[in-house]
């Protein structure tokens, strides 16, 4: 019997971008949140004289060779286990490609989890947690978060991950416009907006890094700002250290940040501190339609149907809205549909449910 694993997705509740580093990556601070919506990754493996990996998918846009994140995860897991095996991976795609939902990254973790379970059937011991995290970080900046699940703080280039207290699940509408945003290009566009002095020494081809700009909000300031917002939201009094949305939300207006004054909820406290996604600064001017989608998700003619929070996810193109009630979420989907915009309805997925519901 092969092993089938739910490969969940993520959104970025907030994302502050830092300066370009000498290694070409950017320092960032982000709060990832896993979602219920998922791909399915099926793995079948048995020890063999030499490793042979085959990968198939129902979506022709998914690479079926060593470029695939799931393939990389299988290769690295086998080599770290010191085992050669025949491995067959099948990816059933339900999530968007290049959507900013971390689908490919999650596929890597799902394949690794499935492969370890398959190998255990043949008496091969699982890898240690730190080893898994190390492998995940080698595959991509967005991969390690899927070894934690729930609300996850990401720092470094996003690969250094820490579990955060979870929010109670909320309804999430993800708009899926027919636009693919290239992640490296979005980072380059961010750099182009900033003076070369904002980069770390050695960053940028053939440029000499000068002293940091003296005016404005430097990228390093932005990282600290988001860290402070997260810490402040976590400091709010909670009963058990577990985030809950809290009952009896105050009457809302159309304006997001001011809508929830007086409501004692860490998620809302976080929103009030003004968390945002820095990528919006470069992605919305380039694709104004995505900014329009955020406005559609955020506001409604009926204040009780306004989003708790709406934002671009990662570098896009997915834009999401979080809602207190199913009817508010459904109304947001209907507003999108009126304009011909495809969307999906899901829930945020806390850590415990993430692991409990992973195996099919
Ligand atoms: C932007 C984010 C936010 O969550 O998500 P997506 O929008 O892709 O989902 C991630 O940082 C994406 O992570 P991931 O997709 O794993 O990126 P990687 O494979 O590590 O890197 C792809 C490329 O993006 C750029 N990159 C990525 C991460 C980072 N901190 N700095 C960068 O400059 C680099 O040019 C790198 O070569
Ligand atoms: N398992 C995978 N599923 C989807 N795309 C993959 C996978 N492995 C590698 N890729 C490549 O990675 C690119 C972006 O992957 P994806 O995870 O869908 O985007 P994002 O990080 O924006 O959510 C795709 O264009 C695809 O060529």
Give an overview of the whole structure.
Helices cover 31% and strands 23% of the residues. The chain is globular, with a radius of gyration of 21 Å. Strands 1, 2, 3, 4, 5 and 6 form a six-stranded mixed β-sheet that branches. Residues 205-216 and 238-264 have low confidence and may be disordered. It contains ten helices and ten strands. Helix 1 packs antiparallel against helix 3 and helix 7 (280-286) packs across helix 8 (288-298). The chain has helices spanning 69-81, 103-120, 129-139, 183-192, 219-235, 266-272, 280-286, 288-298, 326-338, 351-356, and strands at residues 3-20, 26-47, 52-57, 85-92, 151-155, 160-163, 171-175, 309-312, 319-323, 343-347. The longest helix has 18 residues, at 103-120. It folds into two domains: 3-166, Ribosomal Protein S5, domain 2 (2-Layer Sandwich), CATH 3.30.230; 171-352, Alpha-Beta Plaits (2-Layer Sandwich). With 360 residues, it is of the alpha+beta class. The structure holds 4-diphosphocytidyl-2-C-methyl-D-erythritol 2-phosphate and adenosine-5'-diphosphate. Residues 12, 15, 24-26, 28, 30, 100, 102, 105, 140-142, 157-158, 183-184, 187, 314-315 line the site of 4-diphosphocytidyl-2-C-methyl-D-erythritol 2-phosphate (SUD). Pathway: Isoprenoid biosynthesis; isopentenyl diphosphate biosynthesis via DXP pathway; isopentenyl diphosphate from 1-deoxy-D-xylulose 5-phosphate: step 3/6. Keywords: ATP-binding, Isoprene biosynthesis, Kinase, Nucleotide-binding, Transferase. It catalyses: 4-CDP-2-C-methyl-D-erythritol + ATP = 4-CDP-2-C-methyl-D-erythritol 2-phosphate + ADP + H(+).
